[in-house]
Amino acid sequence: MAKKAVASLQKGAGRNYTKCIKLKKSENGYQYDQEMVHNDKLKEFFEKK
After folding, report:
1. pTM of this prediction?
2. Among 3, 19, 35, 37, which is 20 to 30 Å from 43 by CA?
3. What are the two backbone dihedrals, phi and then psi, of residue 26, each rounded to the nearest 5 degrees?
4. What CA–CA distances, in Å, run from 38 to 1, 17, 19, 29, 30?
């Protein structure tokens, strides 16, 4: 199933997106923030808190 999803993202408009993972510190430890972000907005994703 995962192979099918990855393969579909490699063709066409899927190449314009990147899966971004950002580590956030919280009261109980750390949390991960994951998003599919358009390549033009990568900098904005990592700048926001």
Report:
1. 0.57
2. 3
3. -125, 180
4. 23, 4, 9, 29, 25
What's at 14, amino acid-wise? G
How many CB atoms within 10 Å of residue 22?
A: 13
For residue range 27-41, list pLDDT tens digits in order.
Answer: 889 998 888 888 899
Separation of alpha carbons 23 and 32, rounded Å: 5
For 38, the token pair is 């358009």
Strand, helix or coil at 48? coil
